[in-house]
Amino acid sequence: MENGTMPSYFYFTLFKEFVDIKYLILILTLSVYLAIILFNAIILFVVFKERSLHEPMYILISCLSVNDLYGSAGFFPRIMVDLLSDTNTISRPACFVQIFTIYTFAISEFTILSLMAYDRFVAICNPLKYHKIMTSKLTALYMGIASLYAVFSMGLIIFFSARLPLCGNDIPRLYCSNWSVVRLSCGSSTLSNNIIGFFVTTTTIFLPAFFILYTYVRILIICQKSSKEFRGKALQTCLPHIISFVNYSLASFCDIALSRYDSDKYKIVAIIFSVEFLVIPPVLNPLIYGLNLPEIRRKVVCLFQWSKVANFRWINN
User: Fold this and answer.
1) What is the pTM of this model?
2) How many helices (H) and strands (E) are present in the chain, helices listed first?
3) Residue 147 phi/psi, 5° resolution?
4) Residue 95: enclosing H or E segment and its boundaries?
5) pLDDT in tens, 37-85
6) Helix, strand, coil percentages for the chain (3-state, nearest 5)
């Protein structure tokens, strides 16, 4: 077995597959990234500008937008640089920074969706105590604790991964992932990495996913026993959360499953699922909440109407 080393850089091998169409992919990537920034910025502006939206549900929606912008910043600028580069290399520190950013984004996404599910559960199943249970301070406390846990758990994972001696520096992905680095290890056991990775995955993805499923099952049971009007209103507020949860869960679980196997047999599928959770939710989430929740939709429409009036006055003056 070769002696392990600590390579100063890693090489993304998948970019050589797109040499002929890299400029087309670059244009599409830039367009998607600008759309993500625009859509999520609109949601943030509307929520923070309108005092009537300063409630836990809308605060959590704005947290989702902030997290989507954070995760996108860890992926899109780097992939655009690599599309323009001929070497497709990334330094060792930059690789681990990208791993930290993308994974804390993924953990936070599930955390926020869990808090959203709990918020809807309390609002629908225990409406009389909603304002006592879901206060802005308590929501901020939950987010703070969850963020600290995401930072701590990913810091622990990166600490163990960075210590591994590696027998290569080729990463068969479009970005740095923890398992892509760990699988390059040689001459050292990765048992501790696997145990920590399994624990973090269970506590930050699988447990939140089961909790969300539990809350929505309880909500559906309550809706079945309630009036048609109550059921329609409850499902209207829950539908955006359900769509976001299902979309993000499928992408995350498929990425986790495919990352553990040889991706050469399913290269195109692996590429799609490896970036889907970084691309689709940041685009889809603001559209879902902006179009489906009446309060946000009205404010967004008013914002665009005000913008048109302001532009008309500016042109005429």
Assistant:
1) 0.86
2) 11, 3
3) -65, -40
4) helix 92-125
5) 999 998 898 888 887 778 888 889 899 999 999 999 999 999 999 888 8
6) 80, 5, 15
